[in-house]
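Good morning,

Both structures are done.
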Amino acid sequence: MPSSKPLKTAPKGTAARAVPKIAFVADTTAAAREAKRACVRAYGNAPADEAHIVVALGGDGFMLHTLHGHIDGAPIFGMNVGTVGFLMNEYRPDGLQERLARAVTVKLHPLQMTARTKSGKRHSALAINEVSLLRATGQMAKLRISVDGVERLPELACDGALACTTAGSTAYNLSAHGPILPLGSRLIALTPISAHRPRHWRGAILPANATIRFETLEPEKRPVNATADHRAVTNVVELEVAEAKDRTVTLLFDREHNLEERILREQFAS
């Protein structure tokens, strides 16, 4: 279950607050590389496998890449030197240690994708934002959707469909006109992408412990590909999505600009 609480950098009872070991990682852009050089000059750079905190310098795409590399590992504090930066904090290298000491933690369970392809091969991947299915040709996809073993939609004619986490509800899901989910809501959004039939179906909001099963109808004529964040699988005939309850990613945010407040603001954005 997502949670928010102040980051602790020293155990109770210690006379002085421990200084955390920080590892800086950066995207390949010139701005991100220069930001990393400035941070390393000021604070040093611990090896990633020894760090208490990883500071990611880039945009949301790089932040997702970094989170995937630290599932069940050190918390990630992102600083935006990219474009949108929804998952990032403001880039301000001055006073970074004080910001980290005051930061609020957000713990999220990713989604587990298990896909079977036309050849019978199975693929598994984790998604912090969403698992999506998309038509692979000019033909619209046709999908059968079941939830917890019960068929809920015998045929959805569409460009695709997606299932997303609360954090991912403001990403691709929002572009597909899906609902924005409050951070602590323990929900998954199931959203169609350009649905043709049934024309007025707008998706569903499901409990986080639900298992969603997609079946590709007419896979020879209407092939479908699947993606878990940036991991893609082609020619998918069957796919299951469920919360990975035993896996956790930890994000850090400035207290005054935490993720819960950002998601709430999105619900009132014009």
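Second structure follows.
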Amino acid sequence: MTASASAAAKPAKAARRPYAARVPADVRRAQLHDAALRIIVRDGYDAISIDAIAREAGVTRPVVYGVFEDLRDLLGTLLDRQQERALAQLAEALPPEPDLSDPDQLVADTARRMIETVRADPMTWQPILLAASSMPEQARSRIDADRENFLTQVTGLIELGLALRGGPVLDAEVAAHAILAILEHFGRLLLTDPDRFETERLVATIAGVLTALR
């Protein structure tokens, strides 16, 4: 047998998968969380699996299982991280020492900060504001609870502001729901058509609505 024939007879070696370099556990955890979040934003929760996350991150299944026990563990800790980020951003949107003597300006300023937050970090807010019907109950219940907490804070601020200003007579809880509904809708507009809806255009609309409610 000639050398060329011998070489041809040998089975071809399977292409080796790219080697995932060893990285610190916290870095790998963040990498896999980011990969899972990209899949959720792009393809929805139905597309999430250990295999899909491994492919997205460019690693093998054993690498994923070396950091997380299973898919539930990975998604649970991802929800923890995203909830912490969203709550921190909401806290920053509410001024630490608000001027309660002018509730309208307070709401407008808070709206501006929230709009700019969504514009700056769409990956955090898209799963919240554009929640898919396939969202797991674990995630939906967290979002609902955080929404209620934020509503409670906004309601309290409106009540205090109206009391200090001496009116008008207004149901603060209903007003808080209305304001949040507007902000959530504006957030969805920012995520789906950011170039069309500028921050000042949205804030001016909120200011106009507040003026009409006086």
